[in-house]
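TL;DR need C-alpha cells for one chain.
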Amino acid sequence: QVQLVESGGGLVQPGGSLRLSCAASGSSLSSAFMGWYRQAPGQQRELVTTISNGDKTNYADSVKGRFIISRDNARNGVTLQMNNLKLEDTGVYYCYAYSNGHDYWGQGTQVTVSS
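>> reply
TL;DR here they are.
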C-alpha cells in the first residue's frame, strides 16, 4: 500500500514562490507515473503537472514556464517548484501516483496566494 504525504503549502503573495514536496512510503516510486493536481474552492480537481516513468514532464498551460516538477529520490516522491505565483493558483494541491495498476492520492496541502 502506497501512502503519499504532501508538505510545503502556505500563504504567499502574488509573484512569490513555494516548493511543495510529496513523500511516498510503502513502495518504490522512483520510476512511477506521478503528478500534482489542484482543486480551487467550488471547482473540480484539475491537472497541474505530471512526470512519466521516463521522466517526461507535462504541464497545464496555465502553469507552463512557472512551475517545475522533479523527482525527489531521497523522499521517494516528487517536488513542485512554483514560481511567480498568481491569485488563481490558490487551491488544495494533491500529489498523485500510479503504480502497479493502482491510483494513489495524498491528503492535499493548501496553497493560498493573496496580497
